[in-house]
Amino acid sequence: MTGDWVMRFDGLSRLEASVKQTLMHDCAVMSAQQGTVLFGPGKSPENLLLLLEGRVRVQQLSAAGREIVLYRVEAGESCVLTTACLLAYEDYSAEGIAETDIRAVAIPRTVFDDLLSRSVAFRTFIFTAYSQRITDLFMVIEEIAFQRLDC
Q: Which top CATH class is 3-140?
């Protein structure tokens, strides 16, 4: 696939030509089947996935095996947990599972770090998506903590 995937993300379509070229050259489009575990607790992120098609469920499991769905990543989005782990050089604390067959662009950690340091537009894209997803996550926490009392 050529760089046409870049145009599917508003913030990326405005990048400098050299940054677009880096993304097109150094990133790969990957696929995974429904049910594939994409990441899990204790593993370090190798790539930031920008979801082109499908849906990923991010969930946390208790020691007793209970699960809570933290959020879902839809086409056109990225995973806030992966972004946080990449930024902090931390391992995952939850798992991501493909709820459907997916296609995504994998931005390797080295490319992610390089573009964050040299491109204001890429940094803005990452932090805008990150802040939107954090806001969504807080809404889920509020709903669980204050509105689902009957559960």
A: mainly beta
How much is the pTM?
A: 0.86
pLDDT digits (tens, 9 = 90+) for 13-40: 889 999 999 999 999 999 999 999 999 9
For residue 45, how many other CB atoms are within 10 A of its CB? 23
Residue 72 has φ and ψ, to the nearest 5°, of -120, 145
One-letter-per-residue 3-state SS of the chain: CCHHHHHHCHHHHCCCHHHHHHHHHHCEEEEECCCCEEECCCCCCCEEEEEEECEEEEEEECCCCCEEEEEEEECCCECHHHHHHHHHCCCCCCEEEECCCEEEEEEEHHHHHHHHHHCHHHHHHHHHHHHHHHHHHHHHHHHHHHHCCCC
Distance CA 64, CA 17 (A): 50
Query: Which residue is associated with the tokens 């007793």?
Result: 64
